[in-house]
Design brief:
Residues 24-452 form the Amidase domain. The protein is α/β, with parallel strands linked by helices and 472 residues long. The chain has a single domain (3-462), classed as Alpha-Beta Complex (Amidase signature (AS) enzymes), CATH 3.90.1300.10. Helix content is 42%, strand content 14%. It contains 16 helices and 13 strands. It has helices at 8-16, 22-40, 48-63, 106-113, 156-163, 180-186, 213-218, 228-238, 277-292, 303-320, 324-330, 333-350, 356-377, 402-411, 413-421, 449-462, and strands spanning 43-44, 75-79, 117-122, 134-135, 139-140, 169-174, 189-192, 220-225, 263-266, 296-299, 381-386, 425-433, 436-443. The strands form two sheets. Strands 1-3-2-6-8-7-12-13-11-9-10 form an eleven-stranded mixed beta sheet, sandwiched between helices. Strands 4-5 form a two-stranded antiparallel sheet. Strand 4 (134-135) and strand 5 (139-140) form a beta hairpin. Helix 12 crosses helix 14 (402-411). The radius of gyration is 21 Å and the shape is globular. It starts with 7 loop residues before the first helix and ends in a 10-residue tail after the last helix.
C-alpha cells in the first residue's frame, strides 16, 4: 500500500515513531495530486517546494525529540474561502483570483499548531453558496465517483481531493451543509461541530467577522476525513477555547455523561421532501447496524426540524439581502441563478419580502426550537437522518430548471435545519447506490461530538470501505 492511501491516524502514528518520514508522505501525496488532480480540479495553489520544506522540518523535529502535535507531518488541504497566510483567498471569484491572505484564520492556526502540513487550497463555488463546486476563477471540480454528479458544495474540492487520495484530511466550513453534503457525495466522513467548539475567528482585515448575524452564529469550521477516527483526530486538533470568537466557548467541554444505552431516533421525512428510495435504504441499513451495535433504535416524528429548515430560508436570506447586489455583481452566472431560485423558494414560504416583525419572530422562535431539541435529546439520545432527501445531484441541477432548483433546496432540509439550531452533525457513508456514495447523518446534543462519532464508528465498522478511489 502506498503512503497516500493510508489514514491520517496511521500516518500520524508512523511519523511520530519514525517508521514513516513526513517527506515520504508529502512526496507520495504530491505524486497522487499530479496523477489525479488534473482530472478532478479539486485543489488549487499547490506549492510542492513549500510542502516539502515543511516536511523536512517536521522530520527534523521528530529526530530532535521535540514535543509533537497530534497531526505532526500529516498533509491537509484548506478551503479557498478560509484565510491562510500568503495563500490564495479567492472565494471562487474571478475578480479575486490572485488575492492572498495576510494571516491565518483560527482554525488554520490550530491545524498549523497541531503539526499539519498544508498541501493546497480546495476549490469551492463563488461565495460558497451552492451545493456544487464550480466557479469562474478556478473552474469545475468533479466527483471522483462520477463526472456527471456533484462532488457537493461548498467544500466540494475538499471532499473530492480527500476521496481521491490527494490528502488524508481536509478543512471545510458549513452554514448549510457545506461539510456534510460533500462528504456524503464523495463517500467520506464530515463533521459539523457545535457552534463555538472550533474557533471561527478570522483576521481583523477580513470583514467576515462583522458579517451577517446568521454567518456569525451559524457558520462553523470542521474537518473531513476518510475515516471516523481521522475526523475525530482532526476535530480535536482544531477545537480550542478562543474568546476572540464571539460565539466561542471559554473551555473545551467534555463528553456529556450518559445514563444508559444511547437511543437513536430515525427521522426520515419531515414533510418537506419525500426521501428517495436509496436514501430510505441507507437509513434502514444504518439503523440495522446501530441496533447490532447495541443502540436502541426507534422511528421518530420531529416536525421541529422542518420548522428549523424553513427558518434557514428566512433568516439567512434576509441577512444576505442587503449585500445581495454586490454578491450578484461579483459572482458568476451559476451563483446568480442558484440564488434566484433559492430566493424564489424562500418567497413561497415567507412571501416576497418578509417584514422586520417576521424576521425578529424567526430569531425568537429559533430559541424555542433549540430548547425543545436539547430536551428531547437529553444525554442519551441521538438522531439518524438522511444527509439529503436525494442521492448526489446531477451536475448543475440547481440551475438548469427553476422547479428543479427549488426542489433541491427543499431536499436539503437535513443540511439546513442543523445550522439554525447549532447542534453537531456527522455525515458517514453506508455504501453505494447506483454506483454513487450514499450515507446518513447523525445529530447529537450540543457538545456531544464524541457520542455521534461513536455511533458513526459503529456504522463505519460494518460498512464497505469506499475510499480512496480512482477518478471514474
Amino acid at each position: 500500500m502506498e503512503l497516500w492511501q493510508l489514514s491520517a491516524t496511521r500516518l500520524a502514528a508512523g511519523i511520530r515513531t519514525r517508521e514513516i518520514s513526513a517527506v515520504d508522505v508529502v512526496t507520495s501525496c504530491l505524486s497522487r495530486i499530479d496523477s489525479v488532480n488534473p482530472a478532478l480540479n479539486a485543489l488549487v495553489d499547490v506549492r510542492p517546494d513549500e510542502a516539502l520544506a515543511d516536511a523536512r522540518r517536521a522530520d527534523a523535529a521528530v529526530a530532535a525529540g521535540e514535543i509533537l502535535g497530534p497531526l505532526h507531518g500529516v498533509p491537509v488541504s484548506t478551503k479557498i474561502n478560509t484565510p491562510q497566510e500568503g495563500r490564495l483567498l479567492s472565494h471562487g471569484l474571478a475578480s479575486l483570483a490572485g488575492a492572498t491572505s495576510a494571516g491565518d484564520e483560527a482554525c488554520v492556526s490550530a491545524l498549523r499548531g497541531a503539526g499539519a502540513i498544508f498541501l493546497g487550497r480546495s476549490n469551492a463555488p463563488a461565495f460558497s453558496v451552492r451545493w456544487f463546486s464550480s466557479n469562474d476563477a478556478h473552474g469545475r471540480t468533479l466527483n471522483p465517483w462520477s463526472a456527471d454528479h456533484t462532488p457537493g458544495g461548498s467544500s466540494g474540492g475538499a471532499a473530492s481531493s480527500l476521496a481521491a487520495g490527494m490528502t488524508p484530511l481536509a478543512q471545510g466550513n458549513d452554514i448549510g451543509g457545506s461539510i456534510r453534503f460533500p462528504a456524503a457525495c464523495c463517500g467520506v466522513v464530515g463533521i459539523r461541530p457545535t457552534v463555538g467548539l472550533v474557533s471561527n475567528w478570522t483576521a481583523p482585515e477580513d470583514t467576515s467577522i462583522e458579517g451577517p448575524l446568521t454567518f456569525q452564529a451559524w457558520a462553523v469550521q470542521g474537518p473531513l476525513g476518510r475515516t471516523v477516527a481521522d475526523a475525530r483526530l482532526a476535530l480535536r486538533a482544531m477545537a480550542g477555547a478562543d474568546l476572540r470568537d464571539p460565539f466561542g466557548v471559554p473551555a473545551l467541554p467534555g463528553s456529556p455523561p450518559q445514563t444508559g444505552p444511547v437511543r437513536v431516533g430515525i427521522v426520515r421525512d419531515v414533510g418537506i421532501a419525500e426521501p428517495h428510495p436509496s436514501v430510505d435504504d441507507a437509513l434502514d441499513t444504518a439503523a440495522r447496524w446501530l441496533a447490532d451495535a447495541g443502540y436502541e433504535v426507534e422511528e421518530l416524528e420531529l416536525p421541529l426540524l422542518a420548522e428549523a429548515a424553513r427558518l434557514w430560508s428566512l433568516l439567512l436570506f434576509e441577512d444576505m439581502r442587503p449585500g445581495l447586489p454586490g454578491m450578484l455583481h461579483m459572482g458568476d452566472e451559476g451563483m446568480r441563478v442558484h440564488l434566484g431560485y433559492a430566493y424564489e423558494y424562500a418567497a413561497e414560504l415567507w412571501g416576497g419580502k418578509p417584514d422586520l416583525a417576521t424576521y425578529i419572530q424567526g430569531w425568537a422562535r429559533r430559541a424555542t426550537l433549540i430548547t425543545r431539541l436539547q430536551e428531547l435529546l437529553g444525554r442519551d439520545r441521538i438522531l439518524l437522518t438522511p444527509v439529503s432527501a436525494e442521492p448526489p445531484f446531477e451536475q448543475d441541477a440547481d440551475i438548469d430548471d427553476p422547479v428543479r432548483g427549488r426542489a433541491l433546496v427543499a431536499a436539503q432540509w437535513p443540511m439546513t435545519s442543523l445550522p439554525v439550531l447549532g447542534f453537531p452533525g456527522v455525515s458517514v457513508p453506508t455504501g453505494l447506490a447506483d454506483g454513487l456514495p450514499i450515507g446518513v447523518q447523525l445529530i447529537g446534543g450540543r457538545f456531544a461530538e464524541d457520542v455521534i462519532l461513536d455511533a458513526a464508528q459503529a456504522i463505519e465498522d460494518r460498512a464497505p470501505r469506499l475510499t480512496p478511489v480512482a477518478p471514474r
